[in-house]
Amino acid sequence: MIPRKYLEKLRQEMAGRLLEAGDPGYDQSLVIDNGRIDLRPGVVAMCVNPQDVATAYKFAIEHEMPFTVRGGGHSAAGYCLNQGGMVIDLTSMTAKRLDLGRQVVWCETGNRWRDLYLFLQATNTGLIPIGGGCPTVGIPGFMLGGGISFVSRSYGLSVDNLLSIDLVTPDGKLRTISAESKSKEDKDLWWACRGGGGGNFGIAVAFELRVHQPNTPTMLCGQIRYPIEYAQEVLGFYNEWIEKAPDSLAVYGYMGKVALPAHPDTLVNTVGLTPIFNGNSREGMDLIAPILKFPNIFINLYDMTLPDFEIFNGLLTVVAGNSAYIRSGFMAPKSFTPSCIDVLTGSMTTAPSSSSLLVWTHMGGKVTEVSKTDTAFWHRDARFLWEVKAIWPHANPDQSVENVNWAYKLGEGMAPHSIGAYCNYIDPLLHDWPQEFYGDNYAELCRIKESVDPDHHFRFQQAIGSPFNPDGAYPPNQAPLYRTFLV
After folding, report:
1. Within this chain, do residues 202 and 281 fall inside the same structural domain, yes or no?
2. Full-model pTM
3. Pairing with 216, which of 56, 175, 185, 316 sits 20 to 30 Å away (CA)?
4. What's the pLDDT tens digit per position in 109-127?
5. The 3-state secondary structure of 94-157, one letter per residue
C-alpha cells in the first residue's frame, strides 16, 4: 500500500488526473475491447503529456509499484491492465499534426487509427497512413509489433513507414530515436521497437509516420461470402491464384457465421474473401473477376476511400466488451492446402459460440523487400496471417473454458500449416512463444532488453526475456489468461 501522502504528491505533480477506485472515471478507464479481462489497478495515471508519463513511470519505479501502459486498450491478453498496481494511461494524449511538404504525420500515442483516419480526411489531401484495419485499435501497440495494413503489399509494414519515436526509456528519460540516432543504445532501441512488441523497451509517447498518396483517390473494396460447403473449391483456387496478384491488390479472408440477406434471423457458416485494390475500380474488377464466379451468399463491392472502408469493415471484428481469447499464426505461400482447409472448416463449423470468427491477412509485396533482420519483425516471408477470435457473451463466464479450449485446439490443428505467430495477437497459452513471435531475432531482442533495462522494470508475463513458457498440453491450463505478471 502506497502511503496517501505520496499519492497526493504525485497527483500534484501531474497535469493529468490520478484515479483511484471510487473516483469518477476510474471504472471507465478499465474498459478495454476484451471484456474477459477483469483487473483493477490501484491507481490509473491519466497522462496528458510526455512529462506526465515520465513522472508516473518514475513514481512506479521509486515505490516498486508494478505498472502497465494502456494505449488503445485492444491488448489481446489484457496486458495493458494489472491487479493492484499502476496503469499509465495514454488515451488523453491525442495531439497530431501533418507536415504536408514531407508527407509526414506526427501523432501522440493516445490516438486510435480512427482518429488519424478522420484527421487526414479533414485535410482533403487524400493521404493515408499505413494503419490498422480495425479503426478502434490504438496506434502504439499496433506499431511496436510491426503493423500489417490493407495496403502493406503496396507500402510495407507500419514500422517500415515509421520515421521516429519519442520514447520514455527505462532510465526515465524522454528520447527521440530514429534511423539518424547516433548512440549504440538508441540505435538498438530503434531496431527493437520496430517489431519487438509493446511494453518491452519503454513507453512510446509520439510517432512520426510517413503517409502516402494512394494510386487513386478511392479504391475497390469488398466483402464476399460463400457457403462453407465451397471452402475447398474457393480456397483451393485462391491458394494458387493469389500468388499472381500484383502488389496493389490484397485479398484478405474470413470464416464465421453471417446472416442471410433475405432472412436476417438465420445465421449460416461461411468462408469469405475481402479484396482491397489500390487503384482504379474498373481495373480492380478485372483482377478479382475470377473469385466472383463461385456460388456465393452475397458480393458487396464498394468504391470508397481506404479510411472509409477501414472504419466500415473493421468494426466486424471488434470484441466490443464481450469475452474473447485470440490465437494467430503466420503461413507460408500456398499454405491453404486441402488438409489446412479441412482444419479450418471443421473447427469453424463446430464453434461453441456463433460470434466466434477467423480472419486472415494477405501479406507479401513490399513487406518482403525488407530483410528479416533489418527490423525486429521476423516474419517477412509469410504470405498470410490467420487470427481466430473465440468470442462469447461477457455475461456468461461459465462458457469460458469451452470457448478457450475450442480456439486453442484450432490453433494446435493449424500448427503444421503455420510458421510462427504474431506478437500483436499475444497469446498467454502459446508454447515456445519467444520463437513463435520473434524467430531468430529473439536473442538480439534479449540482448538489447538486458542492456537498456537491466533491472527489468518493463516486465509482464510474456515480456522479452521472461522465463514463462506454457507446456502446450491439451486441455490447456487457463490460469495465464487471468494475470498480467508472472507469479
Report:
1. no
2. 0.97
3. 316
4. 999 999 999 999 999 999 9
5. CCEEEECCCCEEEEECCCEHHHHHHHHHHCCCCCECCCCCCCCCEHHHHHHCCCCCCCHHHHCC
User: What are 165's three cell numbers?
Assistant: 519515436
The answer to whether position 316 is within a domain reads yes
- pLDDT at site 103: 98
Q: Are residues 190 and 256 in the same domain?
A: no
* 333 and 238 within one domain: yes
Which 3 state secondary structure label does DSSP give 395?
A: coil
- Judge whether 294 and 230 are in contact, CB under 8 Å: yes
User: Which of 54, 89, 124 is at the close of a domain?
Assistant: 89
Task: Provide the CATH number for the domain around residue 150.
Answer: 3.30.465.10
Closest CA to 275 of 341, 216, 331, 224: 224
Domain of 31, in residue numbers: 4-89
* DSSP helix/strand/coil, 205: strand
Strands 384-392 and 357-362 turn out to be: antiparallel
Q: Are residues 411 and 448 in the same domain?
A: no
